[in-house]
Recover the amino acids of this structure.
């Protein structure tokens, strides 16, 4: 296969154009690791034996076709999985070396340290933009003296400050979809998580908003560990340091391959990964 | 080059001519109905309305069929039926309001809200007494019932929608069964379980408790419906920010359901504010102003109306009863208007 110069850059070249974040360059803890994680809904086994490390200060993209368990997997990382009544799991999720499922663990503390941004923007309708950003402090009962400063820094890091600084007392519902999603990102930043999970954060957004959120991710990666589920392989190539490919052959979802992103897109080890990233299926 | 901006138009709306034609059809129907009353066996108001109904149906259908075809004709047919249904619904409401106002205003006077019936009988001249004691009694007893019922009702709804514990099904069944309890049974229950064995005295508090039994299921069911409308994403978002379930409910879910909860309060009050039977049994039906719910007989507006109708017989007594209804209706309107205003002000 030959590639002419006129064609847009291939995924592999997009991915290798990034400089790989070096794990552990900042004081971010040792990161997040999973050991043999399985998940069930009722009797249905949906996720099988996932062992994956997320080094502190890196961005990891989870890719794979719909229904392969990516979302279920990241929901096990901050214990949102158990929010579904029929859910069950096995294995360990280690945050700074401690299993988040160990008996006696305070689940609210885990969710405070491992924040989450959902697929659909979900600002709290009864609160203003400013109250939305600071809602985590209220919910987790954290006392903060200088909330104005925190408000500005969170909105700035989420790339929304300039658009909303004059309308902090308006309701969040008045914003556009992309702005609402960045508001939700700002909201999860306010409680200062060390890990941020993003479940297809751009799937409901237009390209402009997507671009802003990708910029935000690049900015955030300097100070936290990010795990992002995405169906957009261009996005995975643009934003992530590492990529894990998930696949289900009708049974439970499995992790086929995990490697530095440039490697996944240039020289995948597994035939199925190659087929997926080159668009032959999925 | 100048750019001409066209005037904004609304081509989807009927033109002036269309409106005139529609009006003409309605007028023609009235004429046809009048003629049919004059020249056929139909007579009286009922005859006129029946023939008006059919004239409207036929003339509208025919006119639009000729003008625009069968789809528009069917549309006009349904429009006539809808308007008729609205009129039929409004007739009893307007009739009740008009009767209450026209009969009740005779019983109004300047002292009606400040005087009580301690020194007057229902047959005495109107200005000799008032219903201040009854209004105060209703406010105290309904307020007391609300203070007890609202937390219990909302907590029940939260158990059914948020906790969904093992007792969800039996509790939901119980709430439904309780909403069918006849009000006199609620009164008898308080009478036999509290008044005779414990307090041995009738009081406003007993009235509040009897009303509470009727109010809790209404509030619980309405609040449950309202909480079910809150999208699950908000619950997940709250919990994912490190909130406990209780903090998420208190900080996110209940504020989001605020106007729905106000609806629950309104429906709860509407359920009990006109209740007479349980109050007859357990309040002692006072005629004097009593601000202490725990001691002594306490009057209420429904009791005041009941007593004036039943024990009087003179025009003064009837005027008192109708004035009592007018005050009760006005009070309800003011209360609900206020509740809507307060709940609608902030949430956008």
């Amino acid at each position: 296969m030959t590639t002419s110069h006129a064609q847009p850059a291939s995924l592999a070249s997009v991915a290798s154009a990034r400089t790989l974040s070096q794990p552990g360059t900042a004081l971010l803890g040792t990161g997040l690791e999973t050991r043999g994680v399985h998940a069930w809904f009722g009797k249905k086994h949906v996720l099988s034996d996932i062992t994956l490390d997320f080094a502190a200060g890196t961005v990891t993209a989870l890719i794979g076709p719909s229904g392969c368990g990516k979302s279920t997997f990241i929901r096990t990382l901050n214990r949102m999985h158990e929010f579904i009544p029929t859910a069950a799991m096995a294995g360990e999720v280690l945050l700074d070396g401690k299993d988040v499922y160990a008996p006696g663990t305070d689940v609210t503390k885990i969710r405070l340290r491992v924040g989450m941004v959902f697929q659909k923007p979900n600002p709290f309708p009864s609160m203003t933009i400013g109250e939305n950003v600071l809602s985590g402090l209220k919910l987790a009962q954290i006392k903060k003296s200088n909330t104005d400063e925190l408000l500005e820094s969170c909105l700035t890091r989420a790339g929304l400050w300039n658009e909303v600084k004059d309308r902090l007392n308006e309701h969040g519902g008045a914003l556009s979809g992309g702005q609402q999603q960045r508001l939700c990102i700002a909201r999860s930043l306010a409680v200062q998580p060390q890990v941020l999970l993003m479940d297809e954060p751009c799937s409901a957004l237009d390209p402009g908003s997507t671009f802003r959120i990708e910029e935000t991710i690049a900015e955030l990666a300097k100070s936290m560990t990010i795990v992002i589920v995405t169906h957009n392989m261009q996005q995975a190539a643009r934003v992530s340091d590492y990529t894990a490919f998930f696949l289900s052959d009708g049974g439970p979802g499995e992790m086929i391959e995990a490697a530095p992103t440039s490697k996944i897109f240039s020289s995948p080890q597994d035939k199925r990964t190659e087929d997926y990233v080159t668009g032959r299926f999925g | 080059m100048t750019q001409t901006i066209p005037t904004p138009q609304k081509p989807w709306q009927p033109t002036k001519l269309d409106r005139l034609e529609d009006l003409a059809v309605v007028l023609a129907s009235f004429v046809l109905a009048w003629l049919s009353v004059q020249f056929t066996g139909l007579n009286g108001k009922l005859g006129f309305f029946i023939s008006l109904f059919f004239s409207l149906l036929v003339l509208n259908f025919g006119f639009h069929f000729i003008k625009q075809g069968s789809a528009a004709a069917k549309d006009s047919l349904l429009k006539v039926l809808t308007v008729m249904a609205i009129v039929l619904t409004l007739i009893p409401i307007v009739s009740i309001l008009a009767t209450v106002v026209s009969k009740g205003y005779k019983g109004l006077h300047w002292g009606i809200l400040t005087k009580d019936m301690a020194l007057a009988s229902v047959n005495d001249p109107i200005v000799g007494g008032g219903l201040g004691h009854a209004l105060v009694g209703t406010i105290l007893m309904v307020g007391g019932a609300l203070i007890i019922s609202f937390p219990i009702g909302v907590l029940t709804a939260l158990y059914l929608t948020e906790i969904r514990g093992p007792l969800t099904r039996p509790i939901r069944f119980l709430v439904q069964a309780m909403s069918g309890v006849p009000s006199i049974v609620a009164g008898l229950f308080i009478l036999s379980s509290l008044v005779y064995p414990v307090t041995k005295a009738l009081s406003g508090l007993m009235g509040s408790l009897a009303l509470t039994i009727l109010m809790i299921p209404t509030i619980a069911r309405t609040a449950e419906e309202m909480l079910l409308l809150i999208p699950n994403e908000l619950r997940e978002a709250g919990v994912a920010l490190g909130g406990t379930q209780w903090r998420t409910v208190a900080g996110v879910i209940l504020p989001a359901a605020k106007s729905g909860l106000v609806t629950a309060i309104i429906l709860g009050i509407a359920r009990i504010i006109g209740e007479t039977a349980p109050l007859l049994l357990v309040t002692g039906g006072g005629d004097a102003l009593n601000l202490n719910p725990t001691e002594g007989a306490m009057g209420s507006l429904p009791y005041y109306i009941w007593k004036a109708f039943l024990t009087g017989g003179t025009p003064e007594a009837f005027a008192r009863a109708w004035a009592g209804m007018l005050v009760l209706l006005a009070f309800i309107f003011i209360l609900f208007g206020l509740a809507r205003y307060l709940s609608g002000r902030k949430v956008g």
In short: Chain B is about 70% helix and 0% strand. The CA atoms of residues 6 and 83 of chain B lie 36 Å apart. Chain B has a mean pLDDT of 91.
